[in-house]
Amino acid sequence: MIEPSVYGNRCSACGKVSYPAHHVCPECGEGAFEPVELAGEGTVLTYTDVYALPLDYAQRYLRLGMVELDLGVRATGQLLDENPEIGKRVKVTIGVVRQSSDKKIYGLQFVPV
Amino acid sequence: MSTGNELEALLRPPATEMPPYPPKVITLASGEQMVVRQIEREEVPTLLEAIAPLLWVERDFYDIVAARLFAELLAFKRYRVLDEYCLVGLIDGVLAGIVNGRVASPDVGMSYHTLTLRRGLRVGAHLFAAKMEYHVEYLGEKEVLIVAESPIGFRRWMIEYPLEKKFEIQHELGGVPSWVLTRETYLAAKPRLVAGRRPVSPELLETARKILLPEEETLTVQILGERGRTT
Amino acid sequence: MRQVAIAGCGMTKFGRSDVNLVELMCESSVGALRHADLGERRVDAVYVANMGAARINKQTAIASALVDRLSLFPAMAESVENGPASGASAFKNGFLAVASGMADVVLVTGAEKMRAVNNLEATDFVASLTHPEAEYIYGVTLPSLAGMFTRLYMKQFGVTAEHLAMVAIKNQENALKNPFAHIQQRITIEGILHAPEAVVNNPFVADPLRLYDCCPVSDGAASLVLCELDLAREFCPAPIRVAGIGQATDTHAVHERPDPTQLTAVHLAAEKAFSISGLSPKEIDVVELHDAFTILEIAESEAAGFFPKGEGHLALEQGTTSLDGALPINPSGGLKGRGHPVGATGVAQLVELTWQLRGEADARQVKNAKSGFACNFGGFGNNVITTVLVREDR
Questions:
Q1: Buried b or exposed e, range A98-108, using 16+ CB within 10 angstroms
Q2: C16: in domain
Q3: Minimal C-alpha gap between B112 and chain A (Å)
Q4: What is the DSSP string of B160-220?
Q5: Could you tell me the CATH number of the domain that includes residue A68?
Q6: What is the pLDDT along chain C (394 residues), one digit of tens a residue?
Q7: Residue C93: which CATH number?
Q8: Fewest C-beta in 10 Å: which of B12, B133, B141, C169?
Q9: Distance from CA of C90 to the nearest CA of B (A)
Q10: Range of the domain at A74
């Protein structure tokens, strides 16, 4: 069973890690990359509880967050934390973030460290 | 005469003591004060006059809600339904919305309809919550069965309270089986969803004593949009 | 490049429409053409701004449809799609057609019929502009991006819920003076924030943003007639010169921006527009900003250069941006009050500025308005177009 993961890109020329993927490195303009798994810990930059949700979601609200990961990129994902705070330490997990009819979509979920 | 009374008694439900709904006042987003109070049977004709024009408005399910509400209120007035109630929202005495339902059993309430005449100020949300408040806090019921005509509006209540499925029971309005709001869920949701202050001052109650009909032009703009569209 | 002027404008009343998309476009187009009073002069090119026709209204190639309905053949025509900045994008393309000499008279019409679908569908449609893998799959919607932005802004600059409410109250109040505005309803700070009932009246949509911090979903269309300035002087009593246009882009995924409270694209686009026009923010008399969310009016007013970073809410507090203040922002009611038919908004902002600069804004007229600025904000700030307009005879 292959665990799903989310990947950023490390530029083979200048080493800058970017997420999401770009075809051209935003730092140096080169176009060769190696995948970098988005994992490990980070700090919550900001978050929100969204109430007006699209049809795929039947819950009352969804907690989303933007996190500054220690590995050098930021990411947006679902924040699974009862007491969210700007500056709080969290770590990356992968889970089902959206379900449309039969398809499960996996993505980033942040949990308190 | 007595034969007439006997015949009438065949069809008239037994009179039960329903605790009255104590009026409350709600400040709306516009700063206007809406009084929410229960109606007497004598006030039904006024409500029917307000509802009648909506019988032909297809948009947003107004026609089916208006038709059913009209029938329910008429049945209430003519003593042909057991334990029905009706609450109205009044802004400066002008009718802003109507909700109704009945006591199906001492423990179970049956929510009927919610009709909003003044749109854009969450009048419907306030009145629906007032209905639930009546069932749980004043009629002492354990759960309220709910069904709706509009799927979008219903989905919002389903998620907001939230409602639970109680599909073993068919709702009186027919259609699909019931969803239910339990006493526990209501009480947990109350701080978020139920608003209003009591008691209402005598001055304010006086403005709400007689139900005034919205102006036809206002109704047209509110419900039908600018050009009087019906679909 | 030739000088370009707006010779006429028009719009439908935004809100809930009972006609289809093409009908809406015809209505505002005919209004603008009538206002321009072109006489024998022909429209050479038509630019249509629209975001959702293919998805929501199941119709494509709508610019060609509009040419047909207005019997403008054989005019050149195309649709321009740039998310919520479609309006200003279509206008920019129309401007370039005249400025380059490729066309002499251009009709620009922005339109959207959003209420052809329910709110859930409309929310999802707008969310389709977010990054598919890095944002959309998480349930990110435009309000959620605005909510996260607002939380940071509040923490860093001391913007409060009261400030946001002030924007909503001001804009809905202005909208009451605008017969074309969607929302015709006064709101009070008591009703939306301070009363205990406010929790029901004004619930959170994407905290800290509430219901009244978000613009409504609207149908509507707006149109402009552009032509070469000297040509406009022949027949137009008050040509409004396009003094400068600026556009800039930013990262798609909002989290990739170096400073998440900085609206870089607004800043760069405004800088460009001001530079071309030869004017500075201080010389602008009236402003139309893209307040899809109340926080954006505050943030854009800073990024565009009207107030220092972090001080937009102070200007709001002081009444500077009210209709009778030193720098009125959104006299039309903005997106909050006027409504937001996505493709129409960028054009509607320019229609309002045209009316203001021509002295035709009735009850919401800003006195002695000679120059105006508009900001049309696409995506969540990753594609922004700003415009400076100047009344020509002053």
A1: beeeeeeeebb
A2: yes
A3: 24
A4: HTT-EEEEEEE-TT-SSEEEEEEHHHHHHHHHHH---BSSPPHHHHHHTSSPBPPPHHHHI
A5: 2.40.50
A6: 999 999 999 999 999 998 999 999 999 999 999 999 999 999 999 999 999 999 999 999 999 999 999 999 999 999 999 999 999 999 999 999 999 999 999 999 999 999 899 888 998 999 999 999 999 999 999 999 999 999 999 999 999 999 999 999 999 999 999 999 999 999 999 999 999 999 999 999 999 999 999 999 999 999 999 999 999 999 999 999 999 999 999 999 999 999 999 999 999 999 999 999 999 999 999 999 999 999 999 999 999 999 999 999 999 999 999 999 999 999 999 999 999 999 999 999 999 999 999 999 999 999 999 999 999 999 999 999 999 999 987 4
A7: 3.40.47.10
A8: B12
A9: 28
A10: 38-112
Do residue A6 and residue A42 come from a single domain?
no
Which residues from B are below 8 Å from A when comparing CB atoms?
159-160, 162
Cβ pair C120:A54 closer than 8 A: yes
Domains of chain B: 19-221 (3.40.630.30)
> Across C143-195, where does the E strand assignment appear?
none
Residue C41 structural domain:
4-118+217-235
Q: Which residues contact B217 (CB under 8 A, 6 or more apart)?
A: none
Is B152 in CB contact (< 8 Å) with chain C? yes
Tell me, yes or no, whether A5 and A42 share the same domain.
no
The answer as to whether C132 is a domain residue is: no
- Indicate whether A49 and A69 sit together in one domain: yes
* Residues in chain A within 8 Å Cβ distance of C135: 76
ipTM score: 0.96
Q: What is the rounded (10 degree) CA torsion for C77, C79, C80, C81?
A: -170
Does residue C196 fall inside a structural domain?
A: no
Q: Pick from C15, C201, C203: which is nearest to B28 by CB? A: C201
